[in-house]
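User: Could you write out the 3D structure of this protein bound to cytidine-5'-triphosphate? I've included everything you need below.
Assistant: Certainly. Input first, then the structure.
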Amino acid sequence: MTATPDHSVLDGKRVLLVISGGIAAYKCLELIRRLKERGVRVRAVLTQAATQFVTPLSVAALSEEKVYTDLFSLTDESEMGHIRLSREADLVVVAPASADILARMAAGMANDLGTTALLATDKPVMVVPAMNVMMWTNPATQANVRTLEGRGIRRLGPAAGDMACGEVGSGRMVEPMEIVAGIAAFFAEQAGPRPPIHKPLAGRRAVVTSGPTHEPIDPVRYIANRSSGKQGHAVAAALAALGAEVTLVSGPVTLADPRGVRVVRVETAAQMLAASQAALPADIAVCAAAVADWRVVAAAGDKVKKGPDGPPTLTLAENPDILATLSQPGPQRPRLVVGFAAETRDVLAYAAAKLARKGCDWIVANDVATGTGTFGGDDNQVHLLRQGTEPEAWPRLFKTDGAIRLAQAIADTFTTSNSPEPV
Ligand code: CTP
C-alpha cells in the first residue's frame, strides 16, 4: 500500500457495493462497518451466489439500508429501479469480485441485478477480486481483467497468501481496511491535487502532552496504564505540520519522535508537569497524556522483597493535574487549552463536567469502553466539546486524521479571532 490517505474524504460519499459469491463475502460485513463509521452511505446488491455466504439480513442491519438481491422483484423495481440504484452512488465497488462476475462484466452481460447495475452505471467502478489462485491466473480471467482495466475499471488486489481453499498464492481478497484506504485514495484523487501547504499556525507555540506516566513503586516496579501515545504524538505532528513550534512532553512510549517537533521525555506526572510548564509561554496546550492519577507516596529506594509480613501496603497520593494547572488563569495561560476525556460510559456528560472542572477551553471526548479498541488502537470516534457550544460529533477516524482535524480546528480559532482571551 502507498501512504495512508486521509479518510475524511469519505465523509458523505455514496458507495454501491456489489457482493458476489465467494468465501471472502463475509469480509464485506466488516467493510460496510468501516465505511459507515467514516460517513459513507453504503447500499448493497447481493448476487444469488453471495447469499450462500452472507445473509441479506446481516448486510441490511450493518448498512442500515435496504439490500437488493433480485432483479425481477416488482417492489424493488417500483421503489428503486436498477438504473437509479447504479447512478445514486459516487462509486460502485464489486467486492469480492469472483471470476464469474469479472467474466460477466467483461462480456457486458446483464443477467442479474448486480451485473445489470454495473452495465447501467455511469459512475466509476472498482473491483476487488477474490478467488482460487488457479482461477485468478487462468488466462481467461487475466484477459477479462485486462479488458475491464482497459475500460477504466479500477482494481484492488488480489493479495497473495494462504487461501480458504488450502492453496497458497495470489487470489485472496485484500483486507477491509485496505479496501477502505483504496476507496479513500480514489476519492482523494478525484478531488484533485491538494492546495499548496498553508501554515496557519506559523509563529505559534504549542505544548502537547502524550503517552502514559510511570509512577515508581521501587526501582524495578511502577504503576502505569495502557496509553500508547498515538493520539498525542499525532496531534503534535499535525500542529507542527500547520507551522506551530511544538514541544511534545512524552511519557514512556515506543513511538518514533514526530518530525519537526521538540520532544522532552519524562516518566512521572510530576516531571510531565514541570516539563510542560518549562515549555511556556505557549499559545496552545493540548493535554493528551494519560497521566496516572496517583503516585506512591514513598517509593522504595531498593527493590521491595517478599517477606513473612505479607504484601506491602502502598500509600498513594493524588498526582498534580497538568491540564487543570495549565488552564489556571494568569499571564502564562495558553490562549487555547485542550484536554481529552477518556470515558467508558456517559461519555458526553462526564466530558462536559470535566470541561467545567478543569477550566480548559475544549475537550475531545473519547469512548474507551472495552471493545471500542480506542486504547492502543489506530482509530477512534470522538466528540469535540467547546465551552458554550453543543458537542460536535466527528466520524470515526484514524487517530492521525482526527489529529489533523483537531489541529485544523485550532488553526481556525487563531485565524478567525484576534481576541487575546481564551476562545
Ligand atoms: N490530565 C492531566 N493531568 C492529570 C490527569 C489528567 O493533565 N493528572 C488530563 C489528561 O491529559 C486529559 C484530561 O486531563 O486531557 C482528562 O483525563 P482523564 O484521564 O479522562 O480524566 P481524569 O482527570 O483522570 O478524571 P477522571 O478520573 O474523573 O476520569
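The first strand starts at residue 14 and ends at 19.
User: Perfect, thank you.
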